Amino acid sequence: MKASLRVLVTLVAFNGVFAPVTPAYSGDADSSYFPLSLGNEWSFSSRFFPHTERIADTATINGKLYYGLTIWSPSVAYWLRFSDDSVFVMQTRNDTTEYLLYDFTADVGDTISLPSIFTCEWGNRLILESKEESVSTSAGTFAHCFHFKHVSQCMDAGMLDSWFARGVGRVKYTENNIAGLMIYELASYSLPTGVEATISEAVPGSYTPLECYPNPFNAETTLRFHLARTSSVSLRIVDLLGRQIALLFSEQKKPGSYDVVWNAGALPSGAYFAVFRANDYVQIRKLLLQK
Fold first, then answer.
1. Which domains does the chain have, with CATH numbers?
2. How far is the C-alpha of 186 from the C-alpha of 170, rounded, in Å?
3. Which tens digit of pLDDT belongs to each residue from 201-216?
């Protein structure tokens, strides 16, 4: 059986259109300690540098799906892939070498080695300190957290410790930076789209993930997709309530790459969703309009 990428989307009907469902975490909703889905966001509080981390992009590289993580700017800082309860990282899309970053099947005391390019970020080594720690933040109290210790040879920068909760992701971490020792605690988090990548029997290479650039954007953004075969395609924009804002097209299209420009100059700032459908393939991309 040939495997290929297909995106499965959890949707709910609203006024005749479909909107993403926001999943509630029940404690057993997700076995992943680092949920990777487009639109996922984690906001952290700290003494000087509160910030939001988000999954803002996807890329298929060497036949594998990676998620782009933004931290301090809209640009993707790292490309991540989750497989077999482990997180792999690539520094850029052009450097196709991936490295094991977090292993949630590890035993306490196990060590993960990283190359020197990550010395001042995640360190040279990660050691699993515990699987059973509790972490309390303003976003809630999380039990059975994985605690990784980061060992670095970088004297004045880099991660020191990180804690992950099941179904939520990173809930706390500490690092050295220009302000000294900083503690970041989860203030809020959102897993809005319910988009989950799986392997299916769809035709390999038929569709590529929808690209949106720039994103966030001011007034105008370009949506790009590629078809490897003739398909019945539609692309529309909906708001947070699932109401259709714009139907960009709905028609049969031949194989090829397509760019579609959406001008949102008349709309207020906020979050919108691009809903792309090609035959039985559906994908939702979160768009941030910032004026």
1. 23-190 (2.40.360), 203-289 (2.60.40.2550)
2. 8
3. 334 345 666 788 888 8
